[in-house]
């Protein structure tokens, strides 16, 4: 596994229950701010194999990016079961629910 991919997996595994991170946020912490689509690809390929909490990853607008109706609803159900609330337009308040992951990828006061 490439170092970027390993970092993405480690970061996603570290997202606690009831919190979310964005694709871009994860990409930046993993070492490449421009690799949000690569994070989506890692999720698609490795979620099941690596037992990743894939549903805790959303887009920078605070929305679920999955277009497939069933998968979109499943992600929303998982997030709601962890206490995350959606607005009327199916948006998550990132100020309230975004996790600011700090470990060996960032300084203790680093926020994205």
Structural description of this entry:
It is globular and about 40 Å long. Strands 1-2 form a two-stranded parallel ribbon. The two termini are 26 Å apart. It has one domain: Winged helix-like DNA-binding domain superfamily/Winged helix DNA-binding domain (Arc Repressor Mutant, subunit A). 28% of the residues are buried. The protein has 112 residues and is mainly alpha-helical. It is built from 5 helices and 2 strands, in the order H-E-H-H-E-H-H.
Mean pLDDT: 91
Q: Indicate the CATH architecture.
A: Orthogonal Bundle
Question: Helix count, per DSSP?
Answer: 5
Termini gap: 26 Å
The side-by-side strand order for the widest beta sheet comes to 1-2
Biggest sheet, in brief? 2 strands, parallel
Overall number of strands: 2
Given the C-alpha coordinates, what overall shape results?
globular
Order of helices and strands: HEHHEHH
CATH C-level: Mainly Alpha
Radius of gyration: 13 Å
**Class based on secondary structure composition and strand pairing:** mainly alpha
Q: Give the CATH superfamily.
A: Winged helix-like DNA-binding domain superfamily/Winged helix DNA-binding domain
The percentage helix is: 40-55%
**Can you tell me the CATH topology?**
Arc Repressor Mutant, subunit A
- The domain count comes to 1
pLDDT under 50 segments (min length 5)? Answer: 107-112
């Amino acid at each position: 596994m490439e170092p970027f991919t390993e970092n993405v997996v480690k970061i996603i595994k570290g997202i606690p229950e009831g919190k979310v991170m964005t694709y871009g946020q994860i990409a930046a912490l993993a070492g490449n701010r421009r690799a949000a689509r690569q994070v989506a690809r890692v999720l698609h390929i490795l979620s099941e194999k690596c037992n990743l909490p894939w549903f805790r990853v959303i887009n920078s607008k605070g929305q679920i990016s999955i277009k497939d109706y069933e998968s979109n609803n499943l992600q929303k159900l998982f997030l709601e079961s962890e206490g995350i609330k959606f607005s009327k337009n199916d948006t998550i308040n990132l100020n309230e629910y975004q996790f600011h992951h700090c470990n060996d990828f960032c300084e203790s006061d680093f926020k994205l």
